[in-house]
Design goal:
alpha+beta, two-stranded antiparallel ribbon, 7 strands
Length: 96
Amino acid sequence: MRVTVEYLGYIKQTLGITHAESIELKPEASVCDLLTLLAEKHGEPFTKAVYDPKDSTLKPYHIIAVNGLMINLLNSLDTRLKDGDKVAVMPVVTGG
């Protein structure tokens, strides 16, 4: 199955990515499986900024959305992905 991953905010610059990526996953893959694959693909910049498979948690101040819904409203990192899903990886934006 194939999903599209879009990086927003500083993550885009950190990874040096200018556009969304199309990622091939096994059927029934979860958000956790996707993040692990992205950590392997992008290495230290990704593991330091967003997700390190050794910790099994998303770094603080980051959000993952699947088809516009934040994963904390779904099944968190265990959220199952489907072919054609759009996943956004973004920092939390705050202001005063």
